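Task: complex structure prediction.
Instruction: return structure tokens for all chains below.
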Amino acid sequence: MYKKLEKRMAIAAFILLAFFVSRQMLTVNIMGDYAEMSSIINLAGSQRMLSQKIAKDVAMLRPDIDIDRRDHYIVELARTVEIFTEQDALLLSEDHSAVVEHMYEDISETKDKLITSAMTILSYSQNQDGGAISEFNEARITILTTEDNFLMQMDAIVDQYEWEAREAFAWIGRIENIFFAIQIGLLVLVSIIVFIPAHKTFKSMYEEAKENNDNMLRLFHIMRNALFLIDKEGNIQTYNKKAENLLGKIGLDSDISHIRDLFQKSSNDWTQVVELIGPDGTSGMIRLDFNQKEDWEEGSDQIIAMELSVTSGTYRGRESRLLNFYDVTMQKKVEETLTSLVIKDKLTGLYNRYHLETVIDKEIERSERYDVPLSIIILDLDHFKGINDRWGHPVGDQVLIQTAETLLASIRKADSVFRIGGEEFVVVLAHTNSEGGLQAAENARLAIEKSIHPIVGKYTASFGVAERRGGETYRDLYQRADQALYKAKNSGRNCVQIAENESPPTSFALHWKSSWNSGEATIDDQHRTLFRLANELINKHYDGPEKETFMCQLDALMQHIQDHFAYEESVMDQIHYRDSVKHHKIHTELIKRGNHLRTLVENEEITLQILVHFLFDEVIVGHLLREDVLFFPYIV
Ligand code: GH3
Ligand code: MG
Ligand code: MG
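Output:
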């Protein structure tokens, strides 16, 4: 639309320009003609005057005139005749209309007579002795009689000139009128093709802009987010209803003028906010919390969690920032609830088994990295089935809740309690060795024993404690603590038993290190299972009557290795690991060698020890440390 208009405007401008240029050229031309014509009229007028002067000079040159005056008139007459002839030549050289041309032809005889007679008088007067007086007199009479005639004819010529000039001017007037009409026509045309459409376009553009502006403003006010528009210096230009609501909620007057006043009520450092809304106009997002005004009626949340995003732009021609506050209080609460649902036990509010696995992995890693001890307690309520049977399930539940409270009250802040099953709890004791663990368990045991339930009365629990050995997995640690608990149950319950902390002197074990984790859950699980299966075999005597069971377990281990290799290969292919082919080949080679050694054992060509060592050293540990670790970094 606007493009079309621009084209039209260019065309109109061109037409108008062409019109004014041609008009100007014509005017200049006509003015030239006008100047020429007036100079001709002047000349003709002057000729008329000169003819009169000739007549006057001739009249004065009487034969009896005294010598001085005669000389004067002779000079005068000679000069006048000279000018007259010069002007006559000029007049004749001009272009004339046919009428004037004809008139000149008519006057030429009279004029010649005038000039010839004047020349005769001059020559007689200049040389008194030459020529006859009769000629002089005749010439004088001719001039005096011709002059009238010449004057009349000259008047007629001047009149003709003037008539022609008037005609020409009449044409100028007509042309002027035509130009005026054309000018009006052009203006009408330009109005039709340019001004009217332009007016319509500008009007619709204005209306559209106004409508957009109104809609934006409406949108600004009905937005569910709190919006503040500030200038570069942080002065508030305007804000919407939600923003006003926010100000009220946090106890600020609605006439605050600087945005700093708002942020001073937030949990965030002012400099952090300045960075976000700073002078360079960077845009970004931050999370901030506001403390709700104490006596604010709406809702009961004390903290208002907000997400702030900043956008740069202009407002009324000034560089501005739009601060968009999005209320995430509900979202935050939902997130917290969801997290708590996933990691907490509904009945007691303690962490659950799922969360224990996350926590214990981190604790094990920390204990290894900083070389600090780590212990766990497993406790199980004594004869809980009996409590349920006697008082019913709801009372049993109450006992579980009371136990949770007692445990939480008896342990340190750094420790965490988990309900891992019905009436079974685990306490993870960070930075604690077996003695500390024993102490903590004893405290908890006493606390439970003392916490008399209003219906059930006294009830007790049995405890197993274990300190983690170097390189020990959670499973093994748990197993040892569970064995200690089993011992406690067998030693009459309501007591604490500690797991053996020393490794059995004869036993040798492969210790899993958390740094060997790949990050891929299944691979890590399979690797740990390989270690466990290997450890189960490693200290067994494989001669004698147990050989058959041993071979069975060995075959299971080899099968597990094969399954694990296949899974690992599928992961490598999925992530397009660049050395995937090479790694596949190593797997195939290891399996081939393992099967070959297995056949040799079968045929009793080699000892079982060689096969076991090959599996442990080459396949499980060697391959993991040499080749597997190379592709772990590619797993995301
Ligand atoms: P012991 O001293 O050998 O541990 O004896 P026990 O009766 O405590 O052992 P057992 O494991 O046989 O019984 C555990 C009982 O705990 C069985 C089950 O009904 C009960 N139980 C498991 N979960 C809940 C629960 O959430 N609420 C209640 N009230 N009881 C539960
Ligand atoms: Mg139990
Ligand atoms: Mg029990």
